[in-house]
Amino acid sequence: MTPLADILAADALFAALTPDDRAAVAALARRRGHPAGTVLFQRGDPGRDMLVVAAGRIRLSVLSPEGRELSLRHAGPGSLIGEIAVLDGGPRSADATAVTDVELWSVARADLDRLIAARPHVARVFVDVLCAKLRDTTEQLETVALYRLEARLARFLLGLAKGLPVEAGKARLELPFNQSEIADVIGASRPKVNRAFAELEAAGAIERVPGGLICRPGRLAAVAEGEEG
Q1: Does residue 163 carry a pLDDT above 80?
Q2: What domains are there in the chain, each with its CATH number?
Q3: In this predicted model, what pLDDT tens digit does every residue of 10-29 receive, in sequence order?
Q4: Distance CA 217, CA 169 (A)
Q5: Lowest mean pLDDT, pick from 92-101, 153-162, 176-185
Q6: Which residues pair with 207 in a beta bridge?
Q7: Could you tell me which residues are beta bridge partners of residue 173?
Q8: Closest CA to 196 of 223, 165, 161
Q9: Phi-psi region of 168 (alpha: psi -120 to 50; beta: other; left: phi over 0)
Q10: Which ranges carry the HTH crp-type domain (predicted)?
Q11: Which of 29, 36, 38, 32 lies closest to 6, judged by CA?
Q12: Does the reported pTM lie above 0.85?
């Protein structure tokens, strides 16, 4: 199994830390497992720890005033969740539910506070990374407000495909979401998302295959910027 320090090195929040700092964070972690369906935390709960996903998948969501669950994203192996409440001392900003059986590493807020007190430069790194995440969130809101559905879907798929190997202009993307979950994330209904997938396929930007997609990142990028369609 991949050491936690190596997994942290791939996460934006910890990548800028020195190997020694990442090893110090990893030394604080405790391993735990939960079956599918477990509610790991709910919006408004105190942020007592942050979690790194070792195996499985977690859905982050919020409830609308009408009681509809809106999926924000899914966190898979290597993903970090719950860091905002741990770092700012505020309540959880979303619900986290295990979609599958999950294995997690947990780092307690009190332990992380002591590490930051001993290594104050770590706090500066965290501030820089969280500011970058805020910029990303602003861009996502802009995407929902200003772009056609096909462009929003193309941007979503490009985000999932980021870092995948590309051969002959194509990348194989395993989709961990169903269309209803994608619809919640990009602000649309499931039937409209289905039509948007069909339009991307007709444009040659994707090819639907069992278990996922064959993506053509160049064509997806053109759709995402409104240059096609």
Answers
A1: no
A2: 4-145 (2.60.120.10), 147-225 (1.10.10.10)
A3: 887 888 889 999 999 999 99
A4: 7
A5: 176-185
A6: 214
A7: 213
A8: 223
A9: left
A10: 147-219
A11: 29
A12: no
